[in-house]
Design brief:
329 residues, alpha/beta, 2-enoyl-CoA Hydratase, Chain A, domain 1, 8-stranded mixed beta sheet, two-stranded antiparallel sheet, 12 helices, 10 strands
Length: 329
């Protein structure tokens, strides 16, 4: 009896015990409310299979879906001052940064990588809305400038995926300064006759829309993306009127000439490849850059993407650590 009680019965209970379902096994679509199995959703690039709603995704997912064989090199971005204004609202800015970094695993709201898209070299910058709403601050400004410098150095197009709620209020005027700074960085890219392709994702608003997000040679958007300066709720409360259905959504802006195309996420890689082929045939082929010149020109270094679980391929340009922020000549 002891044998049955002590050995058999516990094993039987263990086998028949109800297993708990993981919290992230099912994900509810925020648009149609349909419950989606997480592996099916990931296989569909986080697009709802019922209503085609494009959910927000982070930089790693973007890079993996975009680059050839999911191989790319991340760029280590310049360090910036943390909490230069010693800002505090209901919570210290340093605490908000710490929470965002723990949540996303990223240093700030933008990552930059370079690799190949259908064999064509490209520099890609992606904003992460999950990091403090993708807000534009010192770090994002430096990331865009570094990305434009690397694109110039490699004679490659710069592709930017925008997703932000605007400028980061905790950095005050320093965040607003990034609007003209990033505009100058993009202008240098254009003066080098290199393509700047912008993909507007949900949402792209505020100071980001008022600066680099609307400067693309080609303006692309994902379906249903909210693209505006002030959101519809703010406008309705200000003018005391109901806005048209779909106002400030990607399809509405396409109809009114603000966009060149609206592209489904599953077609994004092929579309970008065709655009690069179309306007990139006039570009000079990237030439080998001497390491000495690269060190002087690019204020960043290429870093293995170990944290992103990808296999980085060898970089065309390597640049060691340096705090020199001189622009590429």
């Amino acid at each position: 009896m002891n044998w049955l009680t002590n050995k058999v019965l516990p094993k039987f209970r263990e086998l028949t015990a109800r297993q708990e379902t993981p919290d992230n096994l099912w994900i509810k679509c925020p648009d149609c409310g349909q419950m989606l199995f997480h592996s099916d959703l990931e296989a569909n690039q986080n697009v709802c299979s019922h209503c085609e709603h494009h959910m927000r995704i982070g930089p790693t997912t973007r890079f993996t879906a975009l680059f050839d064989n999911s191989r790319y090199d991340l760029i280590e971005l310049p360090e910036v001052p943390v909490d230069p204004l010693k800002f505090r609202d209901s919570k210290k800015y340093t605490e908000r940064l710490k929470d965002a970094r723990n949540k996303t695993g990223d240093r700030d709201a933008m990552k930059v990588a370079h690799g190949k898209i259908d064999g064509n070299p490209a520099v890609v910058a992606v904003q992460n809305f999950n990091f403090m709403g993708g807000s534009l601050g010192l770090a994002v400004g430096e990331a865009i400038i570094a990305a434009s410098k690397l694109a110039i150095l490699q004679k490659a197009p710069l592709i930017l995926f925008a997703a932000a709620g605007g400028a980061r209020m905790q950095e005050g005027i320093l965040s607003l300064m990034q609007m003209p700074r990033t505009t100058v960085g993009i202008q240098r890219l254009k003066e080098s006759r290199l393509p700047f392709i912008v993909v507007l994702t949900d949402p792209t608003t505020g100071g980001v829309t008022a600066s680099y997000a609307m400067l693309g040679d080609i303006q692309i958007a994902e379906p249903g993306a909210l693209i505006c300066f002030a959101g519809p709720r703010v406008i309705e409360e200000t003018i005391r009127e109901k806005l048209p259905e779909g106002f400030q959504r990607a399809e509405f802006l396409l109809e009114h000439g603000m966009l060149d195309m609206v592209v489904h996420r599953r077609d994004m890689r092929d579309t970008l490849s065709r655009v690069i082929d179309l306007i990139g045939n006039k570009l000079k082929k990237p030439s080998a850059i001497p390491a000495k010149k690269a060190r002087k020109a690019v204020p960043v270094k290429v870093e293995d993407a170990k944290d992103d679980n990808v296999k980085p391929e060898s970089a065309d340009v390597t640049a060691p650590e340096t705090k020199d922020l001189k622009a590429a000549e």
